[in-house]
Design a protein that fits this description.
It is built from two helices and 27 strands. The protein is mainly β and 319 residues long. The longest helix has 11 residues. The chain is globular. The N and C termini lie far apart (41 Å).
């Protein structure tokens, strides 16, 4: 059964997340009587949207997020939503399903920076400096907004010094077809700020799909970062050749830690001999081989790589 059909879903996911040590979602701190914010024509959660009491309607996701108080819910309906979204408070962002709800901007601009290098990043969905953000049942599609240049970096979902869960979500086409060798082009990026608990990230990525990405599908970098990557499908563009990126399915690096289990990771293969493409790369990471369990690897140049050297030109945002 497809992960996108598993709509038993966020309640089960959140139970699992709490067991893994993530902070619980903040309770709603409602100040206006509205706790549910609906965008477009919501089907799956229609009963919770207007004319239901305690709900309102918005034309854009960002407007709904802006109106939400911490701990509230934004339901996004069926259709294409051409925007970049910024979340800076605990909330739930849930679509009608990854095949039905698409966040697909027509263009992007840099809206944040790397906490390591200060390099500019254009993220389609940016979660910045908060905890308890749950994203589920939607697609992040970067195909139209691809700008075919290596700066700013291009990221589908960026948890920047933030914590939460990504569940039953499809991240796709975070890739510059005319500039495939760019290193800072990532499907999902989780990063901490090396500055203590307030700048740490703890994210669970569960039953999701990442494909057609430039460099890495899922990247977790810096001390203070912990990721749980479980039951996902990660599909590279391999084989890739000269001038393209040596792709990695999942990278945990530079002091980050993580548990990677039950995923299907395939098609990471770099033809030139100077670099190696990896299904799973631990680069100066806090977790090693013992933290990778029960994954299925298919047609990768190397399934699991460990590296004690770096940063390098092959390590996004750590150059």
């Amino acid at each position: 059964m497809s992960c996108f059909m598993l709509r038993t879903i966020l309640s089960l996911a959140v139970v699992g997340i709490l067991a893994l040590g993530l902070a619980p979602m903040a309770r709603a701190q409602d100040i206006d009587g509205i706790t549910v914010h609906c965008v477009g024509v919501v089907v799956t959660n229609a009963a919770s949207c207007p004319p239901a009491s305690g709900a309102d309607s918005h034309l854009t996701i960002q407007d709904a997020v802006n109106h939400a108080d911490p701990g509230e819910t934004v339901f996004v309906g069926t259709g294409i939503f051409p925007e970049q979204v910024l979340i800076t408070k605990p909330l739930t962002l849930e679509g009608d399903g990854a095949t039905l709800t698409h966040i697909q901007p027509g263009s992007v601009t840099d809206n944040t920076t790397s906490l390591f290098s200060g390099a500019p990043i254009a993220a389609i969905l940016l979660v910045d400096g908060t905890t308890g953000v749950a994203v589920s049942d939607l697609t992040i599609d970067g195909s139209i907004a691809a700008f075919n240049a290596c700066s700013p970096g291009y990221v589908g979902i960026f948890y920047r010094a933030s914590s939460g869960v990504i569940h039953a979500t499809h991240v796709t086409h975070i890739h510059h077809p005319a500039a495939s060798g760019c290193q800072a082009v990532l499907g999902i990026f989780v990063q901490s700020g090396n500055g203590g608990p307030g700048l740490n990230s703890n994210v669970t990525i569960l039953q999701s799909m990442v494909d057609d990405y430039g460099k890495n599908a899922i990247t977790a970098n810096e001390p203070g970062t912990f990721v749980t990557v479980s039951s996902n499908t990660v599909t590279g563009r391999g084989p890739t050749g000269p001038g393209d990126a040596a792709q990695n399915g999942v990278q945990i690096g530079f002091g980050a830690r993580g548990l990677v289990s039950g995923n299907t990771i395939s098609l990471h293969n770099y033809v030139p001999p100077d670099f190696v493409a990896c299904g799973l790369l631990f680069a100066q990471a806090g977790g090693g081989l013992g933290r990778a369990k029960s994954n299925t690897f298919i047609a990768n140049e190397q399934d699991i790589c460990t590296a004690g050297v770096g940063p390098s030109a092959n390590s996004p945002f750590n150059q």
